[in-house]
Amino acid sequence: MNKITILIHCNDLPGIVASVTNFIAEKQGNIIYLDQHVDREQNIFFMRLESEFIETSFSTEDFKTTFKEVLADKFKMKWRIYSSKKKPKMALFVSKYDHCLYDLLGRYNSGELNLEIPFIVSNHVDLKPIADNFKIPFHHIPVTKNTKTEAEEKQLQLLESHNIDFIVLARYMQIVSGKLINKYPNKIINIHHSFLPAFVGAKPYHSAYKRGVKIIGATSHYVTEELDAGPIIEQDVAHVSHTYTIDALIAKGRDLEKIVLANAIKLHANRKVMVYNNKTVIFS
Amino acid sequence: MNKITILIHCNDLPGIVASVTNFIAEKQGNIIYLDQHVDREQNIFFMRLESEFIETSFSTEDFKTTFKEVLADKFKMKWRIYSSKKKPKMALFVSKYDHCLYDLLGRYNSGELNLEIPFIVSNHVDLKPIADNFKIPFHHIPVTKNTKTEAEEKQLQLLESHNIDFIVLARYMQIVSGKLINKYPNKIINIHHSFLPAFVGAKPYHSAYKRGVKIIGATSHYVTEELDAGPIIEQDVAHVSHTYTIDALIAKGRDLEKIVLANAIKLHANRKVMVYNNKTVIFS
Amino acid sequence: MNKITILIHCNDLPGIVASVTNFIAEKQGNIIYLDQHVDREQNIFFMRLESEFIETSFSTEDFKTTFKEVLADKFKMKWRIYSSKKKPKMALFVSKYDHCLYDLLGRYNSGELNLEIPFIVSNHVDLKPIADNFKIPFHHIPVTKNTKTEAEEKQLQLLESHNIDFIVLARYMQIVSGKLINKYPNKIINIHHSFLPAFVGAKPYHSAYKRGVKIIGATSHYVTEELDAGPIIEQDVAHVSHTYTIDALIAKGRDLEKIVLANAIKLHANRKVMVYNNKTVIFS
Amino acid sequence: MNKITILIHCNDLPGIVASVTNFIAEKQGNIIYLDQHVDREQNIFFMRLESEFIETSFSTEDFKTTFKEVLADKFKMKWRIYSSKKKPKMALFVSKYDHCLYDLLGRYNSGELNLEIPFIVSNHVDLKPIADNFKIPFHHIPVTKNTKTEAEEKQLQLLESHNIDFIVLARYMQIVSGKLINKYPNKIINIHHSFLPAFVGAKPYHSAYKRGVKIIGATSHYVTEELDAGPIIEQDVAHVSHTYTIDALIAKGRDLEKIVLANAIKLHANRKVMVYNNKTVIFS
After folding, report:
1. Which pick of A77, A124, C217, D42 has the fewest CB atoms within 10 Å?
2. CA neighbor of C113 nearest in space, from C273, C282, C265
């Protein structure tokens, strides 16, 4: 069987669902998943649909062409269609913290993640042994004030030469530039170690300690040019108390960061996230 | 506008979604919500759909008739269609505990619940003052070993004379009989004060204390003839520690019971629950 | 038996615990609870201790006098000693939202709260019927731009004439003045409907909606002159999704507000909260 | 500085806290942590205390001897005293599942765990490469029906020759015998992949799926001779829905298992757990 996933958003009009499901039925597809959402405030319709087609008579490219002609243009849809045959390619950016890296590679190794990791990039060499253990190519691209532009060029070449679909900043401690962000819009996933929008910026655990919060959090979001202000994909929290030192907050937070980032990656890789107006619609 | 909600389940076959959405489109309906689920193990298709129709040209009864002829019979669907014009009627059964009663009536009063409460039934008089405060008729129907059948007859008459749609046992401390259950299948909602299936039966907080669990729970489920074994609608939990006495567990548990029961009632009243094979599909 | 609760904080020095527990032993007290905390960063020692004394031979006032002479002065302690014989008196300030009021009065009625509520104050008359139902005196003190000072005088007179120990703002929609705050330092408990420090100020659910957060929260804190910046007593959160409208966020948030405020009140009334440097130490 | 941790339980009598804290003060110790708990139902007193002593003038062995003579015998205490200088030695038993192993070794590597792992034992060879990557000796001890006794002898020799303090079954798929359990009472930590006491025994995720629960859990407990019935150290849960297949439950559960087991190990290794009457007192 050939499975495709369709993501659509457009102005809400009567008859869209019927038109799309009819189109699938005419092409002999069997709908195995359909979810939709209407943002009533902005009158925007969102839909995610999975459909199976019999192998021999189906071409994803032909389907796309007809879909565009018959439906997308008519309803002025923004749309994406993915074949399940092609796993998304994810580039992993890290610095010195290893907990998210271990967690992701452990999941990757066990087959939990529906994606490929062609390489790991880091501005430090510290985590190379972990990459080696998991037999994933590791590229050391140092970043200094003076070499920032040059380093980014190298990153871009790597990304393009491997046809990378999306980038994960697994506690990568450099700010990525607008150039990279524009090349990969809503395709760079960051993990921020606080419950955003509380504690934007550096050292959120220190700020949480100072404020005396009773709950800490982690947030995974798409990177936009405004710091820590991109569309939120996933958040989770944990209860803490006055007995937690900053180090204890950091240790507790690591567990949140790992799970929140892993969940965000899974949602993205399984094409379950749509972005509109700096917010996400998650069809989970 | 006239809004209807359609719930369907049947064997999974290609073309169901297209057929149903087409049918709606032909009737000039605008689909504002659609969610579906396929139980792959049993090959059962579930769907929930909300659609709006222009007032003047629409009759729910006519729609039902045509729906049955054109779709339901063809696909051998189990189906229900509800008009948003008719709020479900809920009978509230209580005994002596007041926390769920206060909570539900507070929500009812504030307009949070999309339902009507024509009356409250109790086997004790203790909670009558609360019913009076909220100006809801209160029927005292005592239940003893010898009067159980007779009491149930009175309950049934009340339920039928008010066209009750579903029953909520808000810590009602009597076991309801098979006769009542059969008259209201998957329409009697109970709140059990444990994380089922742990601690079935009486005194679950005592059992939780004895076992030394670190988390307690509450479970709302439909009542079936087997005790505490009906389809689960909603569950929630709270962390506890060795410092909790049984009384402290009970106090903590009350907050869970209130929220879990209220959520289950909202899901049911908003027609978001389907039952199949003693499990629920919740379209939330 | 006569039970007292002692709360102490002072610079951390060797021998404090031994000195205090010895003192209790010499007075024939039996320690039934002892918890302590050392803030290593600031070198501050905190202790909470409960002790039982035989009725006939014990006077709380004498105990306090000796405690001060023998221990408190020596270690330069800030200290408070409470007898369990005297329940704290709580004034309840409300405006138009009724959910926290219903919740608190339901708990009060069922004996869950270890305190007295001599009266309810409101700047509106809307919730008077609820106060009447629960037979608690209700004082309507309107607040307008011009009458703010005068209204506050009336509030202060009420508070003083009833020997109120602490004040709870149960969604009271007026900002209390520095004068009131200074009279009741760390004795005015507010419920803020967000996960502070995210979304300080008015309309936090609107801000949460706009930011697209996946979790909402509620925070109970002591009121200080800086808005929503006082010591945090309790926080809790709930998961939400893109399907939540602002109204749905508000409804979901109400459940958080109720529980978080009730828990904060219980902690305060049971003398389990100490404040230092705008943060709380919670001995739960 | 020399830090020791004292754990005590005995019948509750007046003056215990004062006697112990006095004893510490006389020995020139500075108490940096003290928590106690009284089980009122059984009249048992529990205490955990950390104290620092100046290096030169302190011997843990001498302290133990005097403590026994002066205090322990007098109050008939069960007691344990640990020096912070000696990290506990943990043996890791695994089979084929790798998620807990990766998680624990990642934490171990990053210095998060206050313990030593002298070796890993497995009844299969599958996970040897992971042990090799982390440079921890791996012992393959196959277990079959016929070789069970012999295999256990080998395990015991390994454990004894390395002076192992406690054993962790990180999804070890063999039932350990009464002999091993008796040698390591309340020193064998298991992770069970359900919210005990729900779903005791094999295949709990299958049972959870069948029952249609809305929450799944994981439980870490000490191993006793009765299956899955030992004292519970830590539990956690996650919300699930009807959309979860058994495989999805298993994947979601893995994250719970990792965190719950890691937390239980930290509590045990930091001497924060006391066991009485098949329940735990956790001084966290």
Report:
1. D42
2. C265
- ipTM reported for the complex, 2 dp: 0.94
- DSSP-derived 3-state class of residue A230: coil
Same domain, B220 and B262: yes
Helix (H, G, I), strand (E, B) or coil at D236: strand
Contacts of C254 (CB under 8 A, 6+ apart): B112, C99
Q: Which two tokens stand for residue A275?
A: 């972005």
Query: Nearest Cα to D222, choosing from D253, D199, D196?
Result: D196
Q: Are residues B150 and B11 in the same domain?
A: no
Pair (A149, A276) in one structural domain: yes
Distance from CA of C188 to the nearest CA of D (A): 29
The sheet carrying D232-239 orders its strands as D138-140, D116-122, D89-94, D166-169, D188-192, D215-222, D232-239
Which of A51, A83, A115 corresponds to the end of one domain?
Answer: A83
The encoded tokens of residue D266 equal: 């930290």
Going by C-beta distance under 8 Å and a sequence separation of 6 or more, which residues neighbour residue C129? none
- CB-CB contact of D101 with D126 (8 Å): no
Q: Are residues B49 and B73 in the same domain?
A: yes
D72 three-class SS: helix
CA gap A216, A194 in Å, rounded: 6
Do residues D98 and A109 touch, judged by C-beta distance below 8 A?
Answer: yes
Which parts of chain C sit beneath pLDDT 70?
Answer: none
The DSSP code sequence of C93-132 is EE-S--HHHHHHHHHHHTT-SSSB---EEESSSTTHHHHH
Best mutation target, B38, B48, B214, to test chain D (most D CBs within 10 A): B214
Domain span at C169:
90-282
Q: Could you give the count of Cα atoms lying within 13 Å of A250 in the half-sphere of its Cβ?
A: 11
Answer yes or no: are the C-beta atoms of D114 and D97 closer than 8 Å: no
Q: Which chains contact A through at least 3 pairs of Cβ atoms less than 8 Å apart?
A: B, C, D
For A56-101, the pLDDT digits (tens) are 888 999 999 999 999 999 999 999 999 999 999 999 999 999 999 9
Q: What angle do CA A135, A136, A138 make, to 5 degrees?
A: 120
CA angle A233/A237/A239 to nearest 5° reads: 175
CATH number of the domain residue B11 falls in: 3.30.70.260
| Tokens linked to A82 | 């993915």
Per-residue model confidence as pLDDT tens digits over B31-41: 999 999 999 99
Q: What is the CATH number of the domain that holds C125?
A: 3.40.50.170
Q: Are residues A224 and A269 in the same domain?
A: yes
> Residues of A with CB below 8 A from C197's CB?
198-199, 211, 213
A25 and B15 within 8 Å at the Cβ level: the answer is yes
The candidate with the shortest Cα–Cα distance to C2, out of C64, C89, C82, is C82
Does C137 sit behind a cis peptide bond, omega within 30 degrees of 0 on the bond before it?
no
Nearest to D17 among C19, C31, C38 (CB): C31
- Residues D35, D62, D165, D228: which is the catalytic one? D228
Residues B97 and B68 occupy one common structural domain: no
Looking at B83, B110, B141, which one is the last position of a domain? Answer: B83
Per-residue pLDDT, C55 = 77
Residue A76 to chain D, least CA–CA distance (Å): 31
CA distance A155 to A152: 5
Using CA atoms, how far apart are residues A123 and A20, in angstroms rounded to an integer? 46
Number of H helices, E strands in chain D: 9, 13
Domain match, D51 and D95 both: no
- Subunit partners of chain C (3 or more CB pairs within 8 A): A, B, D
Q: What angle do CA B122, B127, B129 make, to 5 degrees?
A: 125
Of A106, A243, A254, the CB nearest to D99: A106
The C-alpha of A258 sits at a distance from chain D's nearest C-alpha, in angstroms, of 10
Domain count, chain D: 2
Residues D74 and D100 in one domain: no
State whether A235 and C213 contact (CB < 8 Å).
yes
Write out pLDDT tens, residues C191-218.
999 999 999 989 999 999 999 999 999 9
